[in-house]
Design brief:
alpha+beta, Alpha-Beta Plaits, four-stranded antiparallel beta sheet, 2 helices, 4 strands, globular
Length: 87
């Protein structure tokens, strides 16, 4: 499955959430990640995120698609973290 993950957490928890999400997905912009992930890994990511978050003030939003090809992605302006291409 392919996901786009967006979080908004208190400043005190941003570094932990950033590090967690980078372990599972590709960082594309401040507090925004995307990438292919298995159901098991996504479940693990969500459980670990809940350990970091304060559900009274933080949020995490996940958009899911079966595959990346089912999403139309349009970037306007500078792309913050361009995917690297390997030959």
């Amino acid at each position: 499955m392919y996901v786009i993950l967006v979080y908004d957490v208190n400043e005190k928890r941003v570094a932990k959430m950033l590090k967690l999400c980078r372990n599972y997905l590709n960082w594309i912009q401040n507090s925004v990640f995307e990438g292919a992930i298995t159901e098991v890994k996504l479940k693990e990511l969500k459980a670990r995120a809940m350990e970091i978050m304060d559900i009274e003030e933080d949020s995490l939003i996940i958009f899911k698609s079966r595959e990346e090809r089912w999403l139309d992605k349009e970037v306007m302006g500078e792309e913050k973290n361009k995917p690297e291409q390997f030959l």
